[in-house]
Amino acid sequence: MTEAILLVGGKGTRLRPLTVHTPKPMVPAAGVPFLTHQLARARAAGVEHIVLATSYLAEVFEPYFGDGSALGLHLEYVTEREPLGTGGAIRNVAERLHSAPGDPVLIFNGDILTGLDIKALVDTHRTSGADVSLHLTRVEDPRAFGLVPTDGTGRVTAFLEKPQTPEEIVTDQINAGAYVFNRSVIDTIPADRPVSVERETFPGLLADGAHLQGMVDSTYWLDLGTPQAFVRGSADLVLGRAPSPAVPGRRGDRLVLETAEVAPDAKLTGGTVVGPRTVIGAGAELDGSAVLEGAVVEPGAVIRDSLIGAGARIGARTVLDGAVIGDGARIGADNELRDGIRIWCDAEIPAGSVRFSSDQ
């Protein structure tokens, strides 16, 4: 049995206002909390026991997922009293693991949507004899990421900070946020203090001569840390570009959940998701967008690449393009909101008062 730690303690600051009332892994993507997709993919790969390392809004997780039996899993929950960083969070849940010292433990972040072959990563770890194995992916522009070069056998040779000049870009490989640790390595992480696995644990292990193995898997990968990325990831799940056994319906141009009301002439395309108890009015056009539970889109509204929070209302003929509307917000008729604008939870914008906006 391979067991896993899932890091779900982040505050999701970059995703606000989506995360004001909801922890990032619980924001719906393709009709269910994003965490559901990760749990389902882990179970499909043979994982049976997962410990969730929680912190921000920790009380939300267990009431929804319970003991995990509905997903064929055994779930446990450990809440940090103070933020401990990625390494500290891993160490903080160690006592809930059942693995022997030499057994592999899968660790993954709660904000990465990926098509990673989990079994292949575990197999690579076992066959290479590594202490830690990392999922690496290649990106066209690695300047926003730390770089992870490897030798001809896939062994990690360094962990490099974000490159500042073209000469510093020595590889296009980056840390993709999924790891396999030998159980014994987890016990070497300092307890009861913040630790960054990326900045402290991995470089420290490498300096001590540990074997860190990289496995490049360049299938679908997306960091859902921004609202725009989150909306894209949800649409990609619906369209079938991103794999998940947890999408609640057939993949295609649209996903309409039960209890939603959609006018016959409304047009839903590009992987648009319409959540439960939502209302989509006559002639509305939605492309690549997500409308969360209980929201209302009035007739003639045009919504592209946007996310509408739970209980929000979008007025007639209003145009949204790349916008994020917080839970309970009210956008009056005949407004035009574009270019990454974020409207806070419960905010109200009168009819016809905004015609455009730059990124905020």
From TrEMBL:
It comes from the Bacteria. InterPro entries: GMPPB_C, Mannose-1P_guanyltransferase, NTP_transferase_dom, Nucleotide-diphossugar_trans. Residues 252-332 form the Mannose-1-phosphate guanyltransferase C-terminal domain. CDD domains: NTP_transferase (cd04181). Residues 4-236 form the Nucleotidyl transferase domain. Belongs to the transferase hexapeptide repeat family. This is NDP-sugar synthase. It comes from Streptomyces bugieae.
